[in-house]
Amino acid sequence: MALTQVSSNKRCDGYQKVFEHDSSELKCKMKFAIYLPPKAESSKCPVLYSLSGLSCTEQNFITKAGSQQAASEHGIIYINISTFTVYSGCNIEGEDESWDLGTGAGFYVNATQEPWKTNYHMYSYVTEELPRLINSNFPNLGKYKLYDATVLAESYSGPELDILIDQGRDGLFLSSSQLRPDNLIAAFSKQKIPVVFRLQQGYDHSYYFIFSFIIDHIKHHAKYLNA
Amino acid sequence: MALTQVSSNKRCDGYQKVFEHDSSELKCKMKFAIYLPPKAESSKCPVLYSLSGLSCTEQNFITKAGSQQAASEHGIIYINISTFTVYSGCNIEGEDESWDLGTGAGFYVNATQEPWKTNYHMYSYVTEELPRLINSNFPNLGKYKLYDATVLAESYSGPELDILIDQGRDGLFLSSSQLRPDNLIAAFSKQKIPVVFRLQQGYDHSYYFIFSFIIDHIKHHAKYLNA
């Protein structure tokens, strides 16, 4: 699978790059962004995959989240994908009619019905094709585990966990119950899994919120990934 | 002069806001962004004005520069203006023909010729109208001094200075001589003014570059503004 470099910019001592490739799962062109910290020039680094939300391209996270300084400092490779541009070339009828269905929506599932089932395989893409691509092209540690947080929590029986969750308290998606952190907290409670859940007063669901807490989260992951 | 709040988002413990108003200098609607650190809730804070480049709106800096964490920490109010959207409503013939003349270009001068001279008063706007507006509506320290760095350096005779400049070494605008840091360095040399000029290898003229060094600059200003 050939990668074409779309852009490369030095940032925080490392490089923010964007690549394009033909996806065999999605049957169209796909873009992903990769931040390579300076440490990656000489050794393998752990990778964090950040899944884009509805209507996002790979640009949202790299321009708005402010993750690079901490990724540089802790030697973390950061991957972000586009869930928006990817499907734009498929020309499926009705794909642009709704902001939260069709071209703007990844959903990280494999569609089973027409007209979506030929291209909309984002689940296989992020769990198989993309990690394979990253592992064979970049100096990372090659580990990848699947997470649906609530499902995993409900059946968890491993060693003690250290979980950090931030949630903006004053965003519309939470107040309209489109986000359900309570399901996750219920699973933790049932399983007696300790968690730090910070319901942040005044914050919404935007990248301003992500930017405000991303450093805490990279530090949190780096503690274990670099251990 | 009435301010209309366009948006307000909590970020890094403070608030990132955008306001709109009718500008008497520009004779059209103008937008500016203001970051209010948590300290501004209870006391006056120093203000940094960041002038937007060609084709920028107030959004470029607030989404891409990553200034808010340091502004929050050091108690600095940060102001950014739009040089792009401001003139879009003037409907001057030819205003959209070139990316670096017309609607996308502030230039921080007062135009003296038709068809620009009625609206294109960005010099008076940033040096008089905007500071007056900020000083009368927000809890800041109300100090404002004019800077054209090279002109000021050439005639400087005050107390010892502490100047920090970062410049991306590998951007197109520098290699094509559209940026002239050498003029500034020549003025410093002639006047025996000490300067730290960091020509940063690998960096370009983008916001990735600004993001990489903004924290150093806010700290640098805060050292004196909070003294």
Characteristics:
EC 3.1.2.12 (chains A, B); 2 domains; Rossmann fold; carboxylic ester hydrolase activity (chains A, B); 7 strands; five-stranded mixed beta sheet; about 230 residues; alpha/beta; two-stranded parallel sheet; homodimer; about 30% helix
Structural account:
The structure is a homodimer of 227-residue chains. Chain A has 227 residues and is an alpha/beta fold. The first copy, chain A, contains 7 helices and 7 strands; from the N terminus they run ββββααβααβααβα. The first copy, chain A, has helices spanning 58-64, 68-74, 122-137, 149-154, 172-175, 181-191, 207-225; strands at residues 4-11, 14-23, 28-36, 47-50, 77-81, 163-168, 195-200. In chain A, the strands form 2 sheets. A 5-stranded mixed beta sheet of chain A has the order 1-2-3-5-4. The first copy, chain A, has a two-stranded parallel sheet with strand order 6-7. In chain A, strand 1 (4-11) and strand 2 form a beta hairpin. Chains A and B meet through strand 1 and helix 7 of A and strand 1 and helix 7 of B.
